[in-house]
Write a structure and sequence with these properties.
Blueprint lengths: L1 H7 L8 E4 L3 E7 L5 E7 L4 H14 L10 E5 L6 E5 L6 H6 L9 H21 L4 E2 L8 E3 L5 E3 L6 E2 L7 E2 L11 H6 L1 E2 L1 H17 L15 H11 L1
Helix pairs in contact: 4-6
């Protein structure tokens, strides 16, 4: 499999790079059967990175939802682990909100539909998966729109499953500022409400077209949630 994935990406050619993140580099590849896929390659052989990769495999193998990016396979036989996902041809929701797209209009109907399509996986992870799962990094740049502009939630590298009888996860604070639940930030206790808070920020982003953190807004309104609440109070 490692050999096929190497061929699929033209030996991980720079021209095939779709993006880079904390966990590794993401490539676009074509398998021998003609399928276009996304291949995530860990940056270096680091124990914590390896744990995140394996965690993502374990989490995604428990999920079956049409609005979640599908994990197609993995390769752990190489020194650097590889994950293979379905390819989503569209841009992220963040891009579609904050950049003009002549091919797609973010009408109110589309915004409402996208919000519903993101709410579905969040509710599924918390209430319908075989073991409850906290995503822990819900944000508009982790939501992709496919060729029909349907929302797909991605990036489960920091996600965690939790026993049904547990109410929270105590952990080192991780996440993205602007989307981070303030109670989690203060207590280090992540609950399902922390995911819901992050989803709420995405909703406000969809409603207003504003970024979660913006230095073009007044100092007291740099955080979108604060800005939105104060605007609601004023009106």
């Amino acid at each position: 499999m490692a050999e096929e994935l190497g061929k699929a990406t033209d030996q991980y050619n720079e021209n095939r790079v779709l993006g880079q993140g904390g966990q590794g580099t993401v490539y676009k590849g074509m398998l021998s059967d003609g399928r276009i896929v996304v291949i995530k390659k860990s940056k270096i052989l680091d124990e914590s990175k390896l744990e995140q990769f394996i965690n993502e495999i374990v989490i995604l193998s428990q999920i079956n939802h049409r609005n979640v990016v599908k994990l197609l396979g993995c390769c752990l036989e190489t020194e650097i682990p590889l994950l293979v996902y379905e390819f989503i041809s569209g841009e992220t929701l963040f891009y579609n909100i904050h950049h003009k797209n002549e091919d797609f209009s973010l009408s109110w109907d589309n915004r409402l539909r996208i919000a519903t399509e993101v709410a579905g996986p969040v509710a599924y992870l918390h209430s319908a998966a075989s073991i409850p799962i906290y995503h822990r990094d819900i944000k508009s740049s982790n939501i992709f729109l496919d060729d029909k502009y349907r929302a797909k939630v991605a990036d489960f590298g920091t996600s965690r499953s939790i026993a049904i009888d547990k109410t929270h996860l105590t952990t080192i604070v991780q996440g993205t500022f602007g989307y981070l639940d303030p109670e989690y930030f203060q207590s280090s206790q992540f609950t399902e409400k922390s995911d819901v808070y992050s989803f709420g920020v995405v909703l406000v982003e969809l409603l207003t077209g504003e970024k979660p953190i913006s230095y073009t807004r007044p100092t007291e309104g740099r955080n979108l949630v604060t800005y939105f609440i104060s605007s609601m109070d004023e009106n």
